[in-house]
Amino acid sequence: MKKLTKHLLVAGVVLSFGCFAPKILAEQTTVPVQVLGVNDFHGALSTTGSYYYPGGKISGAGGAALLSSKLNQMQANFVANHPTGQTLRVSAGDMVGASPANSGLLQDEPTIKAFNAMNFTVGTIGNHEFDEGLAEFNRILLGQAPSADSNFLDIVKSYPREASKMDLVIANLVNKSDGKIPFGWHPYTVKTLTDANGNSVKVGFIGVVTTEIPDLVLRKNWQDYQFLDEAETIAKYEKELRENQKVNAIVVLAHVPSVQSGETTTGAVADMLAKLATIDPNHTVDVVFAGHNHVYTNGVNGKTRVMQSTSQGKGVAEITGEIDVATQDFVKVPDGQVVPVTKENLTPDEKVAVIVADADNRIADERNKVIGAVDADTMVTREVNDNVQRESPLGNLITDGQRAMAKEAGYDVDFAMTNNGGIRADLLLGKDGMVTWGAAQAVQPFGNILQVVEMTGAQIKEVLEQQYDDEKYFLQISGLSYTFTENPTGDANQKYVVESMTKEDGNPITPEGKYKVVINDFLFGGGDGFKGFTNTKLLGAIDPDTETFVNYIQKSSAKGKMAVPALGRKLLYQERVAKVGEIQGHDHLSAFTHQNVTVKDVVVTAVENSSRFYVQDLHPDGDITTSDGMSVYFKNHNVKVGDQLELKGTVAEVFGAGYAEKEQTDLTITQLQATQVMKVGTAQVPAPVILGVDRKVPSQHIENDGFVNFDPNDDALDFWESLEGMLVAVNNAKILGPQKNGELFVLPGESTDTLNHSGGLLLDEDFNPQIIALSTGDRKLRAKAKDTIEGQVAGPVTYSYSMYKVYLPKNSVKIKDGKLAREKTTIKASKDKLTIASYNIENFSANKESTSDEKVQRIAQSFVNDLNAPDIITLLEMQDNNGPIDDGNTDATQSAKRLIEAIEKEGGPSYQYVDVAPENNQDGGAPGANIRVGFLYNPKRVDYNKSEAIGKGNELFKDTRKSLAGYFTFKDQKLLLIGNHLNSKRGDQPLYGSHQPASFASAMKREQLAQTIATYVDKAVKSDPSLKVVMTGDFNDFEFSKTLTILEGNQLVNLVKTYPAEDRYSYFYLGNSETLDHILVSKDLAKNAVFDMIHINAMFMQEDGRASDHDPVMVQLTFKKQKPGAGEKDKDKGDSTDNQDKKNNNGKLPKKLKKDLPAAGTKIMGSLVIIGVVLIGAAIIIRIYNTKKAK
User: Fold this and answer.
1) pTM
2) Ranges under pLDDT 70 in the chain
3) Which residues pair with residue 204 across a beta bridge?
4) H or E stretch covering 689
5) Contact 1172/1033 with Cβ under 8 angstroms?
6) Residue 918 in 3-state DSSP?
7) DSSP states along 935-1001
8) Three-state SS at 1102
9) 632 three-class SS
10) What per-residue string of b and e applies to 93-131 under the rule 16 or more CB within 10 Å gives b?
11) Kind and range of the H or E run holding 900
């Protein structure tokens, strides 16, 4: 065809095409027209797969080069039969996005080139054009190079791109800001077709996209747009075309789902057409090319042909018809057919094949890149375990990944299912279990689109049973397990039926329940005979299976080698009678998992809620290493403590309550999913095992052999497993710290462990596994360190939130007050001595909704009354003015003012404040709060000179508070104060979790940050050897850690290490009194330093006066007398009192450090470096706030 003319319309574009062929007829009243359409191509340049049509499938369909040849072949056949015929090629959306590597890694620009080579004329958008934002899609349409600062691969930046030659039409998408269609796109276009005899006809093309985009796409990529009703929009522009442009032959490109139903169609397109007919009964929409759900469609709804070509270039939808020159309309509903794209009678188009080959070559290096590692030797096999269950390790790994990545994409999915035939190879591993991109791609080569659908429990049961229709095709599953049994009817066409289905959390799958499931588009179309998937509700789509598998391996390997999932999600029903001890066994995982059992002679020992209770064997096996108790799940039970029961059900390993990542971090609970609960009488509840008397929790190891040996006498985790579900008791428990979330951490009254002066247990390097967690269920229970529980408390052992705990009946705990009092420092102000404190004030802001007046008053009182108004205070977790409100503001002026005024009100000095404000949401902490390190200083005691941020622009400090270095002068001594708040322990494996020994990934970053800070100190000291260094802050690490060792180096002393061990802590966590807050000083300063840890928060509840979760730490420093310089005056630096109470060896008072340290050279006008460091933050602006009230 040759372009002849171009006409600009008010709302669209008119293009005229002509075809010069030999004249066949002198006069002709109609022009034969062929329109060839594809939809949901998804960048499938070389993807092949199964093409499904009513009644069958064809394998090996697809590939861009073959698609091009098929389009050319179909056009040639049409012209052969209609010599004056005119052909157009169209796309109904999702041309790109969710694409295989040879298109996706190159930002789908090869697909643009391929569509140009295939002469596509008109197209619309689908939901996947939104994947990276419409601006990026428009860039590739225009053939523009990416910006210089883009994060694209170099292979993208160097790609020989070209602009799309296809007109893009989209009518029902407008900007919220101005109501206009974005990027200058048009709602429709008109193609004028002129045959060899000069006869001209016009065809109008209107584009619409599903209004369900907000449910399918990341919010940030659609929030600026409005999606108009499809039918109303078509009616508006169809009328404009008909009345203003005299166009009556109208084709709609609708990225809206359709479903074949006999000779007609159902689904959203059918609903759209029905509404259109109601709005305008005279509409002349002749054809709809549909898309989105990848399903073969060829039917007629009223006067409109509806077509869909499946997906990924595996088929072509063709309509043919005659347009009357006089009426400018089709003389009748066009004919239609959907034709598969296969190698039969086709040679790949060489031009397109070159484009594809070039793309393959450009991504070759990316294919060989290592993407992760699996904890296996040479491979993860796709071989299934037997001829009945047909479950494979690789199938479980793949579906686990699909479920996990769907959640990452924002879909709260319950399950994932994939067809076994889609797993094309074993996952081959390199050295140390390494996985390359190419190895992963070979496993899932088809690039099938993964779709999220809604299914009822009844539909899930249906598709699971369809596996056994002819026992030819099977599913791999994730998130659920099920038992099946031989069909009692003896139906030869369905040998097995599903007996029960259970969610991963232990809850049953009910027939009427609604669940979100990830499946591929192959299954969605009823592939492999799984017709139960065809009636499901489509909720959205994520990346293709290839990319999803790759991304899952990459993400999961970031924390270490991936574990290969165990088998056992499908279990043939084989009921047996079993004792509780047999079920529990000598392991953390029951050998009876997924088996159906009958359990007799058990008594109810505790009831947790209406669905869960605990039982214990009335005739135990006598083996203390196997538990005689067990958790039972049975919805709406009515059992009571003391009921004797007989139970039937399925044994499961379930996760208790926990954090979002519990499936990757936590141990499981052995539980009976009961199908039948029969009360057979009542019985005496067994006496509990008294912890600390009958059995003692191991105190040396949490788990020292990685679960290789089950040793309850040596490993705490094995000890608790041997009691899981059993009644245990604690006598006169010693409470180690404050109640939080209804939990108490205790030691038995009989314990001989040495406690600190507050009644707590000091952290050591084995983390004190002997600590017992009690779940009281009472968040209002008032308890603190040194309190005790009167008498005995008892309950079953369970597991939640990454640790074992004893579940206590409500209102069973009575607290005896231990009379622990909050401390005050005995460091007194002295004219010639400098006092510096470090205090994490826990998310402090000027926002009264998040920081109460009571908290502000308590912190102010602690500065004035408990710390005696230090000269300088390092503040940690100072938030911006409005706290957790995320409005882009990072200024903390008002937050500081609120604190300073409160201190003044308590009689304290008029402090000034300095910080370096972070960039918004770049320094960690609560979103929008922008916590940072700041300094309060008393201008009557010290002069402030300047500040700077350590780590600004350093990638290592990303999402981490940057350290603040402040320069002060005291008594003519120059001081450098650096405040630190290092990255938290978030992301570390839990102490009592499923990975043993637990690894602490966060430590490596702290160590790297420490080295950066230490280097800063070294450079400062090298520049000025007289410089003295003091380092303060919340280091989120312990005194014996490598982090603190790096910071000490050869120049500094950590004063915490010199403090009496029996009083050494600033924080309470999981029963341990531990130190996260430190002060380090130069060795010559350490000689005369007086250091104190003031215990006013960590061991107390808010009801006891707690204002933060950290205790403050403090030091008083003595310097040699310096002579004032010329023109300088010696400021009066406050109280002339020089009395100093020293802490003695019992830890009651500050202890003067006595460590024999080498003296450093002393020089007149020497400098002091005080480093108080908080590592999290992107500091940009230095501010000093003087908030003294105006008079």
Assistant:
1) 0.59
2) 1-28, 215-216, 218, 386-388, 446, 470-472, 573-575, 1121-1191
3) 190, 250
4) strand 689-690
5) yes
6) strand
7) EEE-TTT-EEEEEEEESTT-GGGTTSBPEEEEEEEETTEEEEEEEEE---STTSPPTTSSSSS---H
8) helix
9) strand
10) bbbbbbbbbbbbbbbbbbbbbbbbbbbbbbbbbbbbbbb
11) helix 893-905
Quote the pLDDT of residue 218.
66
Task: Give the whole-angstrom CA distance, residue 494 versus residue 704.
Answer: 49
Q: Which two tokens stand for residue 23?
A: 């004249």
Q: Which 3-state string (H, E, C) describes 1-67?
A: CEEEEEEECCCEEEEEEECCCCCCCCCCCEEEEEEEEECCCCCCCCCCEEEEECCEEEEEECCHHHH
- pLDDT tens figures, 539-591: 988 888 988 999 999 999 988 898 988 887 887 766 689 999 999 999 999 99
Q: Helix or strand or coil: residue 878?
A: strand
Compute and round to an integer the Cα radius of gyration of the chain. 37
Residue 1117: HSE in the Cβ half-sphere, 13 Å Cα cutoff: 31
Pairwise CA distance, residues 1168 & 846, whole Å: 33
Alpha carbon 611 to its chain centroid, in Å, reads: 30
Outline where DSSP puts E strands in 523-621. 537-544, 570-572, 576-577, 596-607, 612-617
| Length of the chain counted residue by residue | 1191
Of the chain, the end-to-end C-alpha distance in Å amounts to: 86
Task: Report CA-CA distances (Å) from 653 to 510, 646, 890.
Answer: 19, 20, 47
The alpha-helical segments, DSSP class H, found in 728-784 are none
- Measured distance CA(901)–CA(860) in Å, rounded: 9
What domains are defined for the chain? Answer: 2-354 (3.60.21.10), 370-557 (3.90.780.10), 574-682 (2.40.50.140), 687-820 (2.40.50), 833-1186 (3.60.10.10)
The confidence score (pLDDT) of residue 935 equals 97
Cβ neighbours, 10 Å, residue 1012: 16
Residue 843: its pLDDT value, please?
Answer: 95
- C-alpha distance from residue 810 to each of 348, 605, 703, 735, 1071 (Å): 74, 14, 31, 18, 21
Q: Is 645 buried (19+), middle (13-18) or exposed (0-12) by CB count in 10 A?
A: buried
- What single string gives the DSSP state of each residue in 1017-1085? HHHHHHH-TT--EEEEEE-SS-TTSHHHHHHHTTTEEEHHHHS-GGG--SEEETTEEE--EEEEEEHHH
